Each structure stands twice: as C-alpha cells, then as structure tokens.
C-alpha cells in the first residue's frame, strides 16, 4: 500500500458534484480505471475519516479504508468503466462493501473474484405485501411477532425445519426456486418477481465441495444471525404513487414483510473453497493484485468457471432459503388471521440479490459489451423497459429493496436510466456499518436499546442478546442519508418508505 | 476418533485460563490470542472463536472429537485449523468446544492434530451468540518470537 500523508492523499480525490467524488489514477498502484464514490456531506465525513485514521503513523496491519479498496479494485485486470463505491460503502474483505465493478468478458485477462461477491453469496432482500392495515395488526402484534419467531429458525446453531435430504439438496441447488415451486413452498407468480426468476441456469452442484453441502443441508430454511432479519413493516410514506401502485402498495399503513437473508453456511463455504483455489490460480497465471484479499482467477480459467458454477448453485440455495421463509411467514400470518395467505394477498413484491456476480449487457464507450458485473453490498437497479425485469415493472423500473437496521426504516427504490449509464444499473444495499461490533457492545446499553424500540412501538424477538447492541441503529449509517444520496445522484429513485413494527433477528 | 465420556480423565475437565480478547473492526471482529507457546496461542484463538458463538459457562465437556489441519505455510495452518473447528460446529456433531488441546503441532510440515472438548450445541441450553461465517486472512498476524517469549495471533473472522 502506498503510504502518504492525509493531505497528500486528498490530492487524488476530487469532488465532482455534491454527491459524487472521483478517485484519480495513481491513488493506488496499477489502476486501470478511475474510481468513484457517491456520498452526501454526512457520509462524506465518515468516508474521509476512515482514510484519515489509516494515515496515522503506526497503523500497520490494520484495515484498508473503503476508498483505498475501491482503488485497488480499479487495478484488477479487465475492469471497465469505473470502480464504484455506493453511499453505504465501508471497508470489507478485499472489495469494499458497497462496491461494484464490471469486467469485460471479451478480454481474456478479465477476472472473477469471490471477494467481489462476498462470503454470503446471494444475500438479499425479499418484500411481501399484504392487504392488512396497521390497525388490523396492532391488537395481535405481539402474538404475530412471536408466531413468526416460532416459525422461522433464527440465530447461530439453528436448524431448518423444511424436510431435506442430500438428494433434495442437489436438486434445489440446480433448480433454485423451481424446486421450491415443485415442492409446494412458493406460488408460481413469486418467481416472476425475483431476479433471474429465482434460478441461475449455470448452477452446477458437482462443482460444489461436499464440505459446503454438509454445511448447507442443516441450515436450509434458516434466517441466520448478524444483520439478517425478518420484519413486519408498514408503509410510512409513498413518494411515487404510480410505481407503488404497480407493486400493489396502495396506502399508508399497509402491512408488508421484509426478509433479509442469504445462502447461509453453504455460500460461506463455497466462497472459502474458491479463495483457496484462486490463490493457486493467481500464482500460476501470474495475476498481480494490490491486496492479497483480492484473490481472483481469469473468468475463462477452470477455477474461474468452477467458481461461477458453484456461486450460481449458492445463489439458488439462497433463493430456496428465502422461499422457505416466505412459506413459513405465510403460514404464521394465516394462523394468526385465520385466513389463507391468498386472501391476505401475500404476494412477493420483489426479491433482490446484493452479493452476486452476473453476466450482463452494458454500453461502454458507446459500444454494447458483455460484462461480468460484481455487486458486493450493491443492488441491481435496472431502468424502465429493461428486458430482464418483469412485465409488471416494465414502466416503473426494477424495484430495489433497501433494508434498514433494527428499528430504522427501509425503502423501496426503482432503477433509473441514469443509474444504467453511470453505475452499470447498480445502487446501494442498506445502511452500512458505522461502528464496530465490539465498540457497539461497549458503548450501547442493552436495556436502553430495548426501551427505545418499545417506545417506538416496535416488538422485538432476538435470539442473541449481544446482537441487540451490535445491531442497534446507532451502530449503522443512517439509511435515509444513504437512500437520499442515491436519489439525489439519480442512480435510483425513492418510491416507498417502510417502518418496522416487529423485528425477528438471530 | 470420538471417545465416550467415560474415557475422559479428571485432567480433561480442567479449563484453561482465558488468554484472548476481541478487537475492533467495522464489520467483523478480530480475535487476538496469546500464550506461553505458539501452540497455546493457537488453542486460545480457537477457544476465542467458540466463546463468540455462545457463553462458555453454559457449555459442558461431554464429548471429545479430534480434528486435523494441514497447510502449506504457518498462516495457512492457522486458517485451516480454525476452518476445521468451524466445520465441526456447523455439521454433525455440531460441537461447541470449551477446551482445545493440540496434540500434534508441526510447524515444519504445517500440520495440527487437536482434541476438541465440548458438547452438541443446543438452543435452549446454550445462549445464542454471534454466527461466524468464515475465517479470513485479512490482516492476519502471527507473532512467533521465542527469544522474547512472545507468542500472539490475530485473526479476523467474518460475521
């Protein structure tokens, strides 16, 4: 890493408009393209403070700040356009979290990097709507929260309740949501409202280690821990009545359910296995990167292809996982309201992936190119009329689901044409951490958090008490700042704001 | 390689002192462990990871399992050692460990054999702590300085 004084570092950064900064060539060695990041004045301070801290003398063996990581990604072989930091960007493993980068499939030197996807492959958010109003839920809110908590296995060490053997798992990995549909866990129309229709076609379970399958099997249909959650939310504000209407969101107070989860131990193991393989491939193919964590392989190498096939299987696992929890959520609601999920209109509004790599067509320097787009902590946000979004959203643009944190609001955005040209149709994914977990536990009081949530009218069921402090809203960047920056920068458009009334967490 | 409970001796139930702590990292947590030998620092690092998943006073020693880890270098050895422990927790026998004893610590051929003492993780009996997704090489450090009697390891786990 290049070590310079903070004011020297700043010379490589240029604010090009109130919401966007440019990272010039030379900020890190061997940059092939420039970097860019989107921040407003509040987020800008967090971003620059991170850089300033890393410039202090004696900061050896510490963590690379997000802005340096964006620049290191810009130095990867085959990158096109710019390495992009979204407003929720923070330091991660190799790639920053909230970092997207696209690589030219036609360039034989182009790479795929598991660090550009993340350990939790196809971690994502799904939003279900209901025809219930907040006042229908209030009287039985506690029972409903408890029922959801009882139905969905959460937290470390929990095991799935969807019956599953090794053969079922193979099929699920290959078929994704088609498996869930065949087994009767989802509705046919759920698939339509899901990226890739809930199935990546290039998934190949034979490219997945037995170790990953063993880790995945007991965890299918579990929420997980950390920042994952299931929330009962109500519509708090509608910014775009037309787009909201297309999503079946008609009025303030309408009840929705948001599920944030991923591919569990299965995806974590697929990523771990790939990192080991790629270290070897990097030595063989003499791929140089600025950071050892940016392990990668050429897209066309055996390791690259095997990873993409295993990653697709993990993506399918994640969709089956979210689908299983959709099933459990519908059951919990049906039992409490003594009505069929159909009659409660519990449709999937959309399901997004915010840790994934996909092959997409984009215009680069006026030419249509096939790219491998890495989105790590970044959500696809395709504009109106894009052929890959469902017919229901052709005129609105793709719904983008932005999960808040425990006790804060969440947002639905839509994709824009500007986002398509500026950020390869990508936007933010959530709030992004501001405080470390250890710091949260030291500085935040467990009871205070619970009392505060209670005073806000939020029921909470959390498996791990430690998590209450770690995941307290104070530990995160303000999701409203993040979303407003995306909106103001034009890379996606605010549609609906949701606020939680019950939270279920690991 | 599993042993019956009856096979355990009194010594097996002696709990080692805590020689680890958790350091700050924005999204994840950094384990810092130390010991009188590098072997002890490795054992402590493994125990630190388990202690992050639950509260140790609730864990009893009822089973012993043996794991092996092999690697090409010392950092790889620490990585694979922790990865094997995480695997032991994530699949059958779902073991949450209270005590780790490395019986073979070969830093020439980079091989570890370790006895893992604990019991099956049970929701209800064991408080749920934080889930560990993966071990990382990120900012990994191994301090191995026999002349100063200084043995420490630093590992970031992805949570």
UniProtKB/TrEMBL annotation, chain A:
Entry cofactors: Mn(2+)
Catalyzed reactions: a 3'-end 3'-phospho-ribonucleotide-RNA + a 5'-end dephospho-ribonucleoside-RNA + GTP = a ribonucleotidyl-ribonucleotide-RNA + GMP + diphosphate; a 3'-end 2',3'-cyclophospho-ribonucleotide-RNA + a 5'-end dephospho-ribonucleoside-RNA + GTP + H2O = a ribonucleotidyl-ribonucleotide-RNA + GMP + diphosphate + H(+)
Organism expressing this protein natively: Mythimna separata (Oriental armyworm)
Enzyme superclass (EC): ligase
Reported function: Catalytic subunit of the tRNA-splicing ligase complex that acts by directly joining spliced tRNA halves to mature-sized tRNAs by incorporating the precursor-derived splice junction phosphate into the mature tRNA as a canonical 3',5'-phosphodiester. May act as an RNA ligase with broad substrate specificity, and may function toward other RNAs.
Residues the record lists as binding Mn(2+) 2: 123, 260, 354
Entry's EC annotation: 6.5.1.8
Protein name: RNA-splicing ligase RtcB homolog
From TrEMBL, chain B:
Gene Ontology cellular-component terms listed: tRNA-splicing ligase complex
GO biological process terms held by the UniProt record: tRNA splicing, via endonucleolytic cleavage and ligation
Keyword tRNA processing recorded: yes
PANTHER family listed in its UniProt record: ARCHEASE, PROTEIN ARCHEASE
Keywords: Calcium, Metal-binding, tRNA processing
Protein family per UniProt: Belongs to the archease family.
Keyword Calcium tagged: yes
The name this protein goes by in its record: Archease domain-containing protein
InterPro entries: Archease (IPR002804), Archease_dom (IPR023572), Archease_dom_sf (IPR036820)
Regions annotated as coiled coil: none
